[in-house]
Amino acid sequence: MPELPELVVIAEQMQQTLPGKEVASVTIFQPKCLNRPEEDYQRYLPGKRVLGARPLGKWVELGFQGGDRLLVNLGMGGEVCYFKKGEEPPEKSKWILTFTDGTGFFITLWWFGYMHLVRKGETHPMTDTLGPDPLAMAFDAFNKLLEGHRGSIKPFLLNQKCIRGIGNFYIQEILFQAGLHPLKEIPCLSKEEKKRLFQAIRRVLEDSITLGSSSYELDFFGAKGRYGLDRMAVAYREDGVCPVCGSKTEKIKTGSTAQFICIQCQQL
Amino acid sequence: MPELPELVVIAEQMQQTLPGKEVASVTIFQPKCLNRPEEDYQRYLPGKRVLGARPLGKWVELGFQGGDRLLVNLGMGGEVCYFKKGEEPPEKSKWILTFTDGTGFFITLWWFGYMHLVRKGETHPMTDTLGPDPLAMAFDAFNKLLEGHRGSIKPFLLNQKCIRGIGNFYIQEILFQAGLHPLKEIPCLSKEEKKRLFQAIRRVLEDSITLGSSSYELDFFGAKGRYGLDRMAVAYREDGVCPVCGSKTEKIKTGSTAQFICIQCQQL
DNA sequence: GACAAGAACACGGA
DNA sequence: CTCCGTGTTCTTGT
Questions:
Q1: Residues 117..156 of B with a Cβ closer than 8 Å to A: which?
Q2: Which pTM was predicted?
């Protein structure tokens, strides 16, 4: 599922492509993904120009003239994809937005996902309450953030209200690089461990962004990223051997998620 | 407030004095301390003989013929005291129980406290859910107990559902002797720290029992114990100097309770 | 003991 | 953990 790097890439591509375009029409095939009546989308979007796009954790925000915003969450395996004039969006599209120049973008979802319209001045609980962006954060702030919390480190990092954008794909490599067990208690982390964690988060997310994000997801132009399993030391390795130390790797349950760890590099 | 050592001493004195005596009457001056209608006490206790007494954390349990039990909690600064035939209980008594031989005991309270009557087969949530007795526990069990919990060590030790009988008086010396800061997180305790803590609990509580318990409380015969502030390294020391290392002592807030610590011997 | 806040967990639902 | 509710239970802190 798309996480921070994918959304950073998609938002950047949108930002390069869409500002200035004027909405011509919106077609919705899956009304249950909306946060308000379908008519509102038809009423408020057409005629508005795109001002810009930016990532918000696992969401992307499209800003329009007048202050309205479209907030998109791709859920599991969703895709937002641009199409040129004359191109046809695929059959499976759950949402199609066209601009007056004939271009547009479609969204596909294979499970859940959201296309929320938020009007100027309105609140949006799901993105208003996101924790800070890990890449826009100094170590001191990260350290402070951890000091205010107890419990295991993994659920904390996955909680979008604590820190935005990390999901169960990248966290596996992050915790491996930091040398931390997912169930390590936050209050037990030493300053050095926090530093390693902070740096691992930056390194993993930035590496992926640099490579165009995950090879399992498609970007705004339908291209795969180049950050694949070959970048991951332990995640989804069926061979059961840590490429760093040669020890056994294991798949363990951590709350509702599963995770691969190296029993040697990531001890409790 | 009477804690485990006081209750151990009182229960032992009751056990030496009361078994075999038959209740003649019960007089209650503070019905809000009861768990059931006052009439029940009058109806069920007179005519019954005492079988025995035992401490339950900060409670003392008096068992009667037929399985009824009287559970007494002295709250803050309460007192249970025996009187001989012909002696008069003080004016301030909130509860008086006399035996057919003319002896009896009275209870005084100055804040909260309980005199609960529990009939055979009934449950009593406040004592049924007490944690284990720290003096009847092996280190392994104590270690296991800690493994199941998060949060600071002091609130844990004060929580009667985790471990019974420790209050804010003895814990100060316990944590000092263990060299632990009250806000130390349980998951961060090393095996050695847990061992020190376990031993400090035993040493402090047993020392006090040996000396007849706290010099601030009265036992079942109205006598003061000999465990006083002179036994405590840092608690309530206004001079601000640790007698062990000479460092500064401090009074800090730990949740709802205050605590004296030595800043050198008890670091986070 | 009242009360809030956070953490874990189990649902069902979109 | 995708996010939302709904609960409960525990634990901490005030």
A1: 150-151
A2: 0.88
